[in-house]
Amino acid sequence: MYELLMPSRVVYGRGTLGEVGQQAKAFGIKALIVSDPVMENIGVVARCAQYLQEAGLPFAKYTGVDSEPTDVHVKEALDVCRSERCDVVIAIGGGSSIDAAKAVAVMMTNEGEIGDYVGNQKRFAEKPLPLIAIPTTAGTGSEVTKVTVIINTKTDVKMMISQPALLPAVAIVDPLLTVSCPPSVTAATGVDALCHAIEAYISRRAHPVTDVLALSAIEAIVGYLRRAYENGQDIEAREKMAVAAMKAGMAFSNASVTLVHGMSRPIGALFHVPHGVSNAMLLPGVLEFTKDSAIERLAVIARIIKPSLKDVSDAEAADALVEEVKQLCRDLRIPNMKTWGIDKAAFDKAVDKMATDALASGSPSNNPKVPTHEEIVALYHYCYDYQYDTNPISHG
């Protein structure tokens, strides 16, 4: 049996931020805006607030979310939501703001703490507050997923929670909001979206509908990410990337991610590397590790992004895909963990915990080749100073 879950309404296109007031008014009488300091400083939060005012909807705001959402952010935002008696939540920002807002929306109506719901130890029993999710990056796809990832500040573990209650009621995808993204953020979030799409397609839980979404997203990302990176004012490229990231989000939310995300979360939790960057650091090396167990599917991807490969063998096409991904990372100046500045001694000390946490997340079990703890440790070391311009090293 297959299942496809997504928001009940998706509004997308240039200028659709202007719909937020009417959308929110349909759900409640007072809104909480959840965002981050960058969105507040560049005036995006103020624009959102203006549309709410024009619709006659009172609001409060919490703009304390960092690049990685934590249980502290969730608690602080919950305190505001409760004290201000808000009954609809609006997330505007990157995946971090949207993930934090998801946690607020469900915890306003459910008991305990957000960490109680990790790994389906506990199900959300009560319907959440309505959530309107508005992404300002073309990357996480969180606006259309049933997933939130929150850092537990006591254990330094990224808590991944996946339940239907986390789905936003409405997603508003306005590509004009992504124009302000600097090149480095455009690159990292774009490769994050590519990870979502590739992982959804090769996942053991993939199904025919997610395959269509994933392949369509991959084709668009490879075709337009470089353009968006090189010229942030390229509105066509921004639009194509915004829709592709949304499709990739729909795909992985229903088919699940695999080894890249499983390994990525501990890097973000322990070394505070933004999620898109840590995914990008791992993607080529993990594809090399996985390749022999997913040759046919990787060959399909390769031929979609490079039709000239139609007459080569599946093995050659899969090899070519890995090289294409490496070339993309080179063009986008994706750093490895060493050049990012992660201290080698601290990394070596943490790698065993990281491998344990990666496996515990459950995502690696969806990979075509399910790794052992030792193989994940070896992959972390391999990816630490990965060189995008060298030949791949065999992982046996």
Structural class: alpha/beta
One letter per element, helices H and strands E, the order comes to EHEHHEHEHEEEEHHHHHHHHHH
- The biggest beta sheet, please? 6 strands, parallel
Poorly predicted regions are 391-396
In percent, how helical is the residue content?
Answer: 40-55%
% residues in beta strands: 5-15%
Shape: globular
By DSSP, the count of extended strands is 8
CATH topology of the largest domain: Dehydroquinate synthase-like, alpha domain
- The average pLDDT is 94
**Largest beta sheet: strand ordering:** 1-8-5-4-2-3
Radius of gyration: 20 Å
Please indicate the count of domains. 2
Highlighted features:
396 residues; alpha/beta; Dehydroquinate synthase-like, alpha domain; two-stranded antiparallel sheet; 8 strands; oxidoreductase; long-chain-alcohol dehydrogenase activity; EC 1.1.1.192; metal ion binding
Structural account:
The chain has 396 residues and is of the alpha/beta class. It folds into two domains: 9-178, 3-Layer(aba) Sandwich (Rossmann fold); 183-384, Up-down Bundle (Dehydroquinate synthase-like, alpha domain). The chain contains 15 helices and eight strands. Strand 4, helix 5 and strand 5 form a beta-alpha-beta unit. The longest helix has 23 residues, at 208-230. Residues 391-396 have low confidence and may be disordered.
